[in-house]
């Protein structure tokens, strides 16, 4: 009911303005039909609204019954789940005792296996002591081979460095010669006449001066077209802004009228509700609520035992 200010964009303003325009046209058409002698459909619409309200109440009662049935099913499922937990707890205690006995037997078996493994390891360690000396001799032999290979690689690297230095020296001398040739002065003079054409034999040939004049004319024409287009855009924008302002005034007026109508309708509805009697609840709903309370108490009692 309250007319809360909301910042609207252009599309929302036009859309809401079109909606209110359609409503106004429908209202004018209804008044015109009444002036011509047509009947007022308000009584039929009121009866139709009452029938819809009655159907809605029945639908709501049916939905409430379904909701309560679902809640009752949930309570029954929870109670059944608690019973299953109780049975599983008994089975788990029995399995825990059996598992403890098996773990004890397994621990004794593992101690015996560890003892046997310890004796086997002692036998293997005795054999490893003899193999250690052979391993030291093999390591010394490998170190001698690595030293010989390093000396040979060092000699090859020195030869490669000498060859690379020779190549770099020759390349540096060649670059110096090229730079000396490029530094020689070269005298080139050519006179250019901007009023002459290229002489290619084409009909559309123009000199540089003519091309510059043509380019200046094209730029002036383009600038004039841009100015004209800019003025047109400004005029269209101003027209659109004025249209939006008119639509906003119209929307504010319609909103105020709709707010007053909604307030009157709310007051009428409140007065009817206060004067009338509150509807009684459906008997099915009461029975379902009673069953749910009983199942809930039974579930809490079972939970306390668990």
TrEMBL record:
InterPro entries: CFAP99 (IPR039341). Residues 85-178, 208-238 form a coiled coil. The keyword Isomerase does not apply. The keyword Protein biosynthesis does not apply. Keywords: Coiled coil. This is CFA99 protein. It comes from Thalassarche chlororhynchos. The gene is Cfap99.
């Amino acid at each position: 009911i309250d007319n809360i200010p909301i910042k609207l964009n252009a599309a929302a303003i036009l859309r809401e303005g079109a909606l209110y325009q359609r409503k106004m046209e429908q209202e004018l058409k209804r008044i015109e039909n009444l002036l011509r002698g047509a009947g007022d459909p308000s009584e039929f619409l009121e009866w139709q609204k009452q029938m819809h309200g009655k159907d809605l109440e029945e639908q709501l009662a049916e939905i409430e019954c379904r909701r309560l049935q679902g809640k009752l099913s949930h309570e029954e499922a929870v109670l059944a789940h608690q019973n299953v937990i109780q049975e599983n707890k008994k089975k788990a205690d029995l399995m825990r005792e059996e598992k403890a006995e098996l773990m004890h037997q397994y621990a004794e078996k593992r101690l015996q296996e560890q003892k046997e493994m310890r004796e086997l390891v002692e036998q293997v360690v005795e054999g490893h002591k003899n193999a250690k000396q052979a391993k030291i001799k093999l390591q010394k032999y490998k170190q001698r081979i690595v030293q010989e290979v390093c000396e040979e690689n060092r000699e090859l690297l020195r030869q490669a460095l000498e060859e690379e230095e020779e190549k770099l020296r020759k390349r540096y001398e060649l670059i110096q010669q090229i730079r000396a040739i490029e530094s020689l002065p070269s005298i080139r003079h050519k006179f250019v006449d901007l009023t002459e054409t290229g002489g290619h034999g084409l009909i559309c040939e123009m000199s540089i001066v003519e091309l510059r004049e043509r380019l200046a004319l094209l730029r002036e024409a383009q600038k004039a077209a841009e100015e004209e287009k800019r003025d047109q855009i400004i005029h269209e924008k101003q027209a659109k802004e004025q249209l939006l302002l008119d639509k906003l005034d119209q929307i504010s007026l319609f909103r105020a009228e709709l707010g007053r109508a909604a307030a009157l309708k709310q007051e009428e509805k409140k007065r009817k509700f206060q004067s009338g009697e509150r509807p009684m609840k459906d008997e099915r709903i009461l029975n379902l609520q009673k069953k749910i309370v009983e199942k809930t108490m039974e579930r809490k009692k079972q939970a306390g035992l668990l």
